Request: fold
Amino acid sequence: MLARSKIAGSILVVLIASFITSCARDDRIIMRVGDVWSASHPNSYSIINVFKPMIEEGTNGAIYVEIYGAGALGSEQTLWDSVRSGALEVGILGTLISSEYRPMVIAEWPFLYRDVEHAKSVWTGSFAEEFMSDFNSAFSTQMNLLAVGPNSARTFTSNVPLRSIHDFSGQRFRVPATQVHVGIVNDLGASSHIIPLTDLFSSMQTGVVDGQDNGMVTVLSERFHEVQRYLLETNHLVAIMTTVINAPFLNSLRPEYQQVVRDAARAAAVSAWEAYIVSLDNDRQTLRNLGVTVTQVSDSERLQFIEAIQPTLSHLHAENPWAQEVLTRIGNVR
Reply:
């Protein structure tokens, strides 16, 4: 309760400051963006360097974009609630919204994409347009989904040798508190441990767990390489980031401004995907230079992983009988 009060207080202070600032700046429209990631993440970088300038330039300064990154306005759940209620104009969120919009579970389906380039094609092409249209119909009076960018392609790291599927047995991995992540680790013969991200570094350092499941960008940003010696680049999930906007706010803008906002969000997403794909090679080499043994998974090994996690995949299909048609459509994206 105290933590929620502090978050609410922080948001109130920011919003009051924003209101005072807007009053002193004539009649410009203030668009506040909340993001849990820091500016170094490719998606956040594109929000700052593509989304913001495109809107300000495209509206001739009529809209001014204020960005609050690194969780300054609270957790993803707080941002979702704030955008939905109208307390915040724009939020950058992960796939937690699958709890609110079930079709979003498809975004974290294991081994959904052939590679990261395939994920980019899915979420910047016609499939994404239809997906966002369906979302916007479901939340028409509350919020709109503007674009889908990259979070990270998830990998496994460990202090214990981890070079193939055969090395998982008996190891202890920290995973996020989701059924899919827990299921994958258990199917691979390891044990899953749910630990807050804030406690993960010390948990690996002290041997509470052997390793963890995250993208290389997170391994570097959280300095996990200091306490992990091996990384297996499975890319078993390619997590996404969504840009959502309060619907009444968007609809209050002039039609031409609404289009500027939509175009800016989509351009930022494309830029983020392109930057993230480039960053993969850089991050891999950086980790190797730091002494981490990085092993990339071959196509044949990928099939071994898919076979091993059939229990989790079967459970997902049983819970989501509608998903097969969507999976087929995604598989056909080129």
Observations:
- The mean pLDDT is 92.
- The two ends are 48 Å apart (CA to CA).
- The CA atoms of residues 37 and 44 lie 6 Å apart.
